């Protein structure tokens, strides 16, 4: 896999885990995470911290800023969005999700 993209240091990737197992979800303690939802539409989002979210329902195309590519995810997906990513969410089906921000105060070098 050629993940070696030095031309763009801000090549932040959204990673998607499709249909994670129940044991994986309980290991993450997802049911204790806060919830967030939105109706269909377009949203400009900037992530100042890494976010992990699990979609209970919905369908989203996320277009990273400055890219014509998009990633698509929806109900049942566990999605990790890297810190520093700006993207547009094109929501076609209303979203209901659990989410968690990583608070990495340890990396203050």
Automatic annotation (TrEMBL):
Domain ((S)-ureidoglycine aminohydrolase cupin) ranges: 26-99
CDD domains linked to this entry: cupin_TM1112-like (cd02227)
InterPro entries cross-referenced by the UniProt entry: RmlC-like_jellyroll (IPR014710), RmlC_Cupin_sf (IPR011051), UGlyAH_Cupin_dom (IPR008579)
Taxonomic superkingdom: Eukaryota
Pfam families registered for this protein in UniProt: Cupin_3
Protein's recorded name: (S)-ureidoglycine aminohydrolase cupin domain-containing protein
Lineage, broadest ranks: Eukaryota, Viridiplantae, Streptophyta, Embryophyta, Tracheophyta
């Amino acid at each position: 896999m050629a993940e070696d993209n030095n031309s763009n240091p801000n090549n932040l990737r959204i990673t998607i885990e499709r249909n994670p197992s129940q044991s994986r979800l309980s290991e993450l303690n997802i049911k204790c995470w806060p919830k967030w939802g939105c109706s269909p539409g377009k949203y400009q989002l900037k992530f100042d911290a890494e976010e992990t979210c699990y979609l209970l329902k919905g369908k989203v195309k996320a277009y990273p800023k400055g890219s014509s590519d998009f990633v698509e995810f929806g109900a049942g997906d566990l999605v990790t969005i890297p810190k520093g990513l700006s993207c547009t969410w094109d929501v076609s089906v209303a979203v209901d999700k659990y989410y968690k921000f990583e608070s990495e105060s340890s990396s203050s070098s």
